[in-house]
Write a structure and sequence with these properties.
The protein has 614 residues and is of the alpha+beta class. It has helices at 43-70, 105-119, 122-138, 154-165, 187-201, 206-222, 285-300, 306-319, 358-375, 384-393, 398-402, 459-470, 474-483, 521-531, 598-613; strands spanning 79-80, 87-88, 92-93, 97-99, 148-150, 181-182, 241-242, 279-280, 331-332, 345-346, 356-357, 412-413, 415-416, 423-429, 437-441, 454-455, 539-540, 594-597. A five-stranded antiparallel beta sheet has the order 3-2-1-18-17. It has a four-stranded antiparallel beta sheet with strand order 11-13-14-15. The chain is globular, with a radius of gyration of 25 Å. The two termini are 43 Å apart. 50% of the residues are buried.
Amino acid sequence: MNSPAKKSPPSSALSRRRLVQAATAAPLVGAASGLATGGLTTPAAAATAASTDAVRDAMLRAATYMDETVSYQGAYVWSYRPDLSLTWGEMEARRTMCWVQPPGTPTVGHALLDAYVATGEKRFLDAARRTGRALVRAQRPEGGWNYIHDFAGAKSLKRWYESIGFNGWRLEEFQHLYDNSTFDDAATSTAGQLILRLHLLDPRDRGFRRSLNKVVDFITDAQISGGEGVEHSGDGGWPQRWPVDPKATTEMPWPKKLPSWLPEDAREGMVDGDYTQHVTFNDNVLGENIKLLLMCVVSLGRDDLVEPVRRAMECVRRMQQPAPQAGWGLQHLAEDRDGRPAGAVAAGRSYEPRALTTHTTQTNIEQLFTYFQLTGDRTFLDGVPAALDWLASCRLTAQQKAENPLIASRTHPTFVEPGTNRALFVHRFGSNIENGAYYYDYDHRDTLSHYSGGRSVPEARLRSEYDRLMALTDAEVADLVARSPLTPGDPYDLPPFFSLHDLGLLELLRGTSHEVDRPDDAEVATVLADLGEKDYWLSAAEAITNPFRGPGTKHPYDGKAYMSKHVGDTFDTSPYPSNNPPAVPPYQSAEPPQLINTSTFVENLGTLIRASAS
């Protein structure tokens, strides 16, 4: 079996910690030797100076190895065997690929640039620029980025999609090579942010300037227009991909032969056609685009971008569904369709039914909290009580949690049916992309493992924050507005570090402190010890993959062995955890292999950046 990448959510480079912790903290390198400083030598001063040297040396060695040995022309995927014989992004990748999804190329680039900001070492800046130039080459003509780019050329990328991509049963976004750019998974936003930072460091660099102008124009051109002021209009939102691809996938048809046990009420997904053109909230598409535009307002004085930002904010408010189901879905119709009005919730991929979604509702409530603080417009809070009341109405029952270990620790179902307010649960039958398919019904058992049927929504915290914001005085709100990037004023600096945590919009307020917390000595010592003399960090793969072995069998499969597993039969190229494979031969549980993971590099370099900057 192959061993693929580990993926950190775009929202946090630190959320999937994979450090192998030492049993006891190793001493800091050089702490036992004296070092004269101003004619005086003290153990504390010697330890501090020596450890600073050790941290700087480790940062340089690790970054240089990633840049010169691991990267392909400055570009990165997610994971690598130590001998670089196999590489992975979200799926098995080619050595010549540039993976744009975090924690790929732009994520590593941000970490390298953060190291330069913390230390002033030009080597880090050179590596970051090389990574930025790789992204410039990978940028599509319309100005955005696809999930991946192949420097071996279009034919090589097409072959990958037709083999590895197409046979990833649960990765429908990779089963078709779209001729456009994506906003999904913060790919375009994260890449654009790195290009912006590099441009700010050297405005004379024409390549970065042109690339930045292209991505900003792409975002504003892709913003949905029309029907402004009309109730539930999609104006101000963004599709998942743009421009329209006339060959986009519009359905995932079931095989002719269905399993004997398929429930009578099983329903197919993707009922609203090409999901990539709906108003998209999935993976915070709208919030990520607002972030990049506001960064341009802050750092470049691009006041012309305030208007599309405000339109986007209004779109979030406008897409909220009426009470008593006052939530949001992953996608909403951008225009009237088949007798349903613009703004109605829409289906996404075949395992994303037409439904309201609880985690998206949480995200959008939090967005409304932020919009109020940026604008001072208290009406952004008007819809929050109804949204919270809806969340309280659709919690998972004790029986549902008791009878499904996959959702036992969650508070809410992922999907809720419009009208009935009943929880919807997604399942699948078959063994691969050829003989299998997804369906949904009301049965809370045997749900998907790769797309959770439940979510943990912090209702109490959301209510508490709502109460806090409602209690703000007019003077306190006025102070926030005065510091807001939406308020006209001179350009000012962006936050100095982008890889230590996911930046929130409120961190763009004027006068915000960006102080970095120093890691404790034991944490720094562990990172240094893990690096050792090998110049790279190893960490466990979160999943492994089956190698591509040709098209999957179309012979019907009547069993249920793959219903709640990350992977189907051995024709399926989807990643899966090595210690939890399907319980059928030839699969066997195994310890995960050790890989060079970009997420671990970013996390560990971040620890050393914090040690250097604090």
